Amino acid sequence: MMSRRIHGMCLLVLATFLSCIALSAGDHRSVLWRGGSIAVEDADENVLVSPSGNFSCGFYKVATNAYTFAVWFTASADATVAWTANRDSPVNGVGSRAERAQLLDTGNLVDYDGRVVWSTNTSGTPADRAQLLDTGNLVVADAAGNRLWQSFDWPTDTLLAGQPVTRYKQLVSASARGLPYSGYYKFYFDSSNILNLMYDGPEISSNYWPSPFNKWWDNNRTAYNSSRYGSFDRRGVFTASDQLQFNASDMGDEGVMRRLTLDYDGNLRLYSLDAAAGRWHVTWVAVGRQCYVHGLCGSNGICSFRPGPTCSCPVGYVPNDASDWSKGCRRSPDVRCGGDDVVDFVEMPHTDFWGFDVNYTAGVTFDACRRLCLDDCNCKAFGYRPGTGRCYPKIALWNGRIPIKPDQTIYLKVARSVKNQMINQSSSFLHFDGHACTVDERDASVGSSYLHGRSNEINFIYFYSFLAVVFVVEAIFVVVGYLFVFRADPVAAGRVRDDGYSLVFSHFRRFTYDELSDATCGFRDEIAKGGTGSVYKGVLEDGRSIAVKRLGELTQADEVFRSELSVIGRINHMNLVRIWGFCSEHPHRLLVSEFVENGSLDKALFCDDGESSGVVVLPWRSRYKIAVGVAKALAYLHHECLEWIVHCDVKPENILLDGDFEPKVTDFGLVKLLSRDAGSHMALSRVQGTRGYIAPECWTVGRPITGKADVYSFGVVLLELLRGQRVCDWVAAADGAWDLQRLAAWLKEKLKRDDDEEEVSTWLEELVDARLRGDFNHVQAAAMLELAVCCVDGEPNRRPSMNAVAQKLISLHDTR
C-alpha cells in the first residue's frame, strides 16, 4: 500500500548482506539482517548506529525531498557525511517504503525506488548481514563474519582513519558546498606512483599539488615504490608509498575523531572533531594558498587573495554564472581576428594564468612577443617577463591568479572598443569586478610642438628629416659592430647566437667544450652513434660517469639541439634518461646525461648466433620489466606532460639498461612537441625515425602524425623482446620479404583461432626466443604478443593508447 504514495525518484536502497549481533531492547541496531530494509519514510529514526555511537547509517537528506544512502558522524553538529552510496542519484523522499535500502535474499545490498539506484553487486553470495562498524566502515558479511563488501573500498570525498587511498581508489570532491554530486577535483595516484590533486574539468585537466613547477624529488616524493597506498592512523599521522607524510596539528590523541576530505573547493584538508561542541577544526591543509588550486574560478577567471580567495573577471569579460564561479567568464564583446585596428592589449600587472602556453619563446623583445599573439587568432593573451625576454603566448586562460609575490605581467587581448572606452574615461586603473590592477596609461595623441604647425598639423619636413638621421646612425652602428665584434672574434659571434639558449638551460649546468673534452679524453671512447651524432663516455671531476652526445656537423644539428633542450625542461620520469647539462660553444653542441651502465637494449638482445649459441642473453623477467618500463615512459610522454610529446624514434638502440636492467628511454633528437589545445597530431616535412620501426603513416609526407606512431614502434620492440631477433630479419627469414602487416595478420588469426591452451603453449614456445629454452611466463608472453599485434595495426585509430598498453602490461605482473 505504501508503494502507491511514491512521488518521482525513489532511492533504490543499498540492499545487501547483513549479519547481526543481538542488541538489547531499546538500543539502536548496528546490523541489517538478510531480508531487512531501511525506508526513506523513517529516515530520522530507522538508521544503523555503530556500537560506539560515533557513526550512523541510513537515508541522509541532501535537499528538499531528496535523499542519499550514507554514513555520517553522529556527534558532529551538521551530521557530516563520511561516505555516500548514490551521491549522483538521490532518491525521492515522499513518504514511501518503496524508496529503501535493503539487503536482499540474494545477498545484494541495494538502494532502490522501483529501480536499482545503487548496489553492492554481491548477488549470489552467502551474505546474511550488513553492519556498521566503529571505524565508520559499512560491511556486508556472511554468517562467519567474512567481509564480502565494504564501504572503505569505495570512498567518495572522505577518508577515515585506517581507510586507504590506493592504485584503484581515489577521492572525488563534491560539486558545491552542501551538495553530494561528484565534482571536478580528484586525489589519486598517478602513473608515476605519486599522490596528486588534480582538476579534471569538462575542458581541461591539470595537476596542481604537489607543485607542478617542481620535480617529484624536489617535492620530497619518490616514484620508485609502485605499491600506491596511503592512509592516516588514529593519531592523525598520514603516510603513503610515495613518501608523502603529514601530521594533524593535534597529533597523538587517538580518541579524537578525524577525517581527510577533498573539499568542493579542491583543497585537501584533515579535520579533527571537537566532540563537546560538535564542530570541526582544520588540523592540516594541502594547498596553503587557495588561489593555487586549479579551476577555482573557471576559464578566464582570476583568483586574488583578499586575504581569502575572491574570483573575478578581467576587463572585457563577464561572468557566465555569477552564482557559480567554476563556470568562469566569457568575452563581452567578442574579439574578432585582426590587426591593431581591431584588437588591442590591456596590461594586467602582477597577474598570471598558469599553463596553456603555445610557442613559448625566450630572448625576444616585448614588441616581438606582442606581435606573436596579435598574429595568432587563437592567442587570448601573452605573458612577458621584462629583463629575461621570456614570452608566453596563451591560447587558453585558466588558473588566473594575482600572486602574493608577482613576477609576471599579462597582456590581455581585447576588442579595441574596450581599450578606447578605458582611455576615454581617463582611467589610470583597470577595475574588473572588484580587482584593481595599476596601469600607467598615457595619452597617445600628445606630441612635441616641433612636429606640429600652427594649425596643429604635423610638419612632415621635420618628421622625415628626423627619421632619415635615425636610420643613418643605426646603419653605421650595425656596420661597425659587425667589423669589430663578429669578424674580430668569431667565438664572440657564436656566443651571441648561443645566448638564445641561456634561458632554456636555467635548470642545467652549462659546461665548456674544454671541460667535456677533458672529461672524455678528447672524445676517445665512443659508445654509440646515431643519425644525430655520436655518444662518448666520460668522467667528471667529481667522479660521476657521464655520457656526452656530440651532435654531428649536420645542417639540422642546431634544430635537433633546440628540440632536445626544449623537451629536457618539461619531462621527468624514472624510465627516461636524466640530462645533467649541455655545452653550446659555436660550432659545438653537446648534451651531458647520466651514464647508463648496461648499454642499449640491442646489444643485450641481439647477438650473432656464433657468439651466443644456447646462451640466454636476457632472462624473461628482465624482458617483461623492460617492456613495462618503456611503456610507462611513453605513456608519461603522451598523457602526463603539459604538452603532447612524441618520441618518433622508439627502437632498441634508444632504450638503455641500468645496473638492474631497468629501462631508460633516450635520444630525443627527433622529438616533436604537440600542443594539447592545438590538437593531438602534427604533420612532418620529412620522414622521422628508423626504417623497420616507422609507422606506415609516417611515410606519407604531410599526413598527421600522432602518438600512435610511437605505439607502432613500441609494438615492433615488443615483438623483438619476444623473439630475441630483429623483426625485419625475422620476417625476411620467414618468407623473403619485409611485410610486418602480413605477419601481424597471421599472428592475429592464430591467436583468435587457437583456443586450446596446450596448443597455444606449443606454438608460443616455437615463436618465443629459443635461447630461453622454454623458461618464460606463457600467460605474459601470450598477452604481450596479442598486445604487440594490436600496436602494429596498419590503421592508427585501431591502435591502443600508450596509457592502455602500460596498464595492460602492469596488470600481468602477478600472473603465473
Automatic annotation (TrEMBL):
InterPro entries: Bulb-type_lectin_dom, Bulb-type_lectin_dom_sf, Kinase-like_dom_sf, Pan_app, Prot_kinase_dom, S_locus_glycoprot_dom, Ser/Thr_kinase_AS, SRK-like_kinase. SUPFAM superfamilies: alpha-D-mannose-specific plant lectins (SSF51110), Hairpin loop containing domain-like (SSF57414), Protein kinase-like (PK-like) (SSF56112). Belongs to the protein kinase superfamily. Ser/Thr protein kinase family. It comes from the Eukaryota. Its main location: membrane. Residues 521-816 form the Protein kinase domain. The chain crosses the membrane at residues 461-485. The keyword Kinase applies. Its EC number is 2.7.11.1. GO terms for biological process: recognition of pollen; response to other organism. The keyword Ion transport does not apply. It is an enzyme of class 2 (transferase). It is a single-pass type I membrane protein. Residues 337-415 form the Apple domain. GO terms for molecular function: ATP binding; protein serine kinase activity; protein serine/threonine kinase activity. Keywords: ATP-binding, Disulfide bond, EGF-like domain, Glycoprotein, Kinase, Membrane, Nucleotide-binding, Receptor, Serine/threonine-protein kinase, Signal, Transferase, Transmembrane, Transmembrane helix. Residues 1-26 form the signal peptide. The lineage of its organism: Eukaryota, Viridiplantae, Streptophyta, Embryophyta, Tracheophyta. This is Receptor-like serine/threonine-protein kinase.
